[in-house]
Amino acid sequence: MASLKNVLVTGGAGYVGSHVIYVLQKTRRYKVISIDNNHNSLSAALARVSQLSKSELPADATEIDWLSTEIDSHTCDLTKPEQIRAVFEKYGKGGIWGVIHIAAYKAVGESTEIPLTYYANNVSASISLLQIMDEFDCNRIVYSSSATVYGTPPIIPIPETTRLQADSPYGKTKVMTETIIEDMCRADKKWCALSLRYFNPAGAHPSGMIGEEPRGRPGNLLPLLAHMAVGRVKDAVLKVFGNDYPTPDGTCVRDYLHIMDLASGHVLALNALGPDSAVFPSDAPAFFKAYNLGKGKGVSVLQIVEAMRKATGFDYKYEIIGRRGGDVPDLTADPTLAEKELGFTAPADLETMCRDLWNFQSKHPLGYSEQ
Ligand SMILES: NC(=O)c1ccc[n+]([C@@H]2O[C@H](COP(=O)([O-])OP(=O)(O)OC[C@H]3O[C@@H](n4cnc5c(N)ncnc54)[C@H](O)[C@@H]3O)[C@@H](O)[C@H]2O)c1
């Protein structure tokens, strides 16, 4: 009987993590181990992922198929090495095939106020994770990076060859962690790693069972608009930071991609870390590579507001205020490398992202906390 590969997902209960776990389960090839300290998530998300995966199993599902829908979930803080080690000890040396390292703090503004907290949580904790992986002969990692590594990029759309020059402490934690992982891969060829530079994930699983459910007020535009429409955020007016950028309508432009497309990219990345990888032929100089995961199409803040107005029927009012420090005019990906080498595509359009986001939010106005 075929067996499942154990894959550890850090930040598994979060927005990206929960959708990644769903797509991993859908392959029926992996058994997921999740680590999360629920700093920005609720473990109810994982229960919903399993419920959703089980509901999609065919009538003739095998025991292995059922096993693939289970999640071995650990409430574990990555800043506490002994807690990470306990998870690896459960599986023993070589027992965990690979890691998808998603957990991090992610608020750019907050990172400028409490930089040490960001470096400790995003960089030091990643070092502990890598050390313990090494101890347990687990040397494959897919890392969640971000478009913020590019800072204010000189070329749009942004290719991966662009110089990394993050402005914020958050962005710098992503550059540093990428660099550390790359150095490990250069030093020891048993390591192989892919860094996925996400642009702006949006939307939810089309069932509306799982979605983005941050603790507290959403920091990102789309969930903020969804919370306004559902009445959880009571702001009468949306603040738009600046309309004097060199973009078609003057507001900032970002590259949104559907969360399901982003999540699927992680399975492609895991495949590329396998033995028959075309990405890492045996004579490769280093088994590290970074890919942009985006649609390659920019949309402005005002276009987003309009798309959400159509999806929700909510009459958003907005006012233009001054630029926000740290915002760059345009972050649009050149995703051609990921398409060529990983087979990655992000076909879902903005309308679909807004529809699926609203489907989740309107079905669960209180999100996971209603459970
Ligand atoms: N969502 C975006 O717009 C976006 C864009 C680019 C990159 N990213 C990156 O993607 C990753 C996931 O983002 P997300 O939107 O899912 O965020 P999220 O906050 O929903 O998920 C992150 C998860 O990690 C957990 N976590 C944080 N610190 C931890 C620790 N020390 N130990 C254990 N768990 C911890 C949180 O509780 C949360 O569940 C992050 O690395 C983020 O930097 C996100």
From TrEMBL:
Query: One Pfam family for this entry, by name?
Result: Epimerase
Give this protein's Gene Ontology molecular function annotations: UDP-glucose 4-epimerase activity
Cofactor needs: NAD(+)
Keywords of the record, alphabetical order, are:
Carbohydrate metabolism, Galactose metabolism, Isomerase, NAD
Under the heading SUPFAM superfamilies, the entry gives: NAD(P)-binding Rossmann-fold domains (SSF51735)
Spell out the GO cellular component terms annotated for this protein, sorted alphabetically and separated by semicolons: cytosol
What CDD domains does the entry give? Answer: UDP_G4E_1_SDR_e
Top-level division of the source organism's lineage? Eukaryota
Family stated for the protein in its record? In the N-terminal section; belongs to the NAD(P)-dependent epimerase/dehydratase family. In the C-terminal section; belongs to the aldose epimerase family.
GO BP annotations of the record are:
galactose metabolic process
Q: What is this protein called?
A: UDP-glucose 4-epimerase
- Keyword NAD on entry: yes
| Reactions catalysed | UDP-alpha-D-glucose = UDP-alpha-D-galactose
UniProt domain NAD-dependent epimerase/dehydratase: residue ranges? 7-272
Q: What does this protein do?
A: Mutarotase converts alpha-aldose to the beta-anomer. It is active on D-glucose, L-arabinose, D-xylose, D-galactose, maltose and lactose.
UniProt subunit comment:
Homodimer.
Matches recorded under InterPro entries: Epimerase_deHydtase (IPR001509), NAD(P)-bd_dom_sf (IPR036291), UDP_G4E (IPR005886)
| The protein's Enzyme Commission number | 5.1.3.2
| Group of enzyme by EC | isomerase
Q: In which pathway does it act?
A: Carbohydrate metabolism; hexose metabolism; Carbohydrate metabolism; galactose metabolism
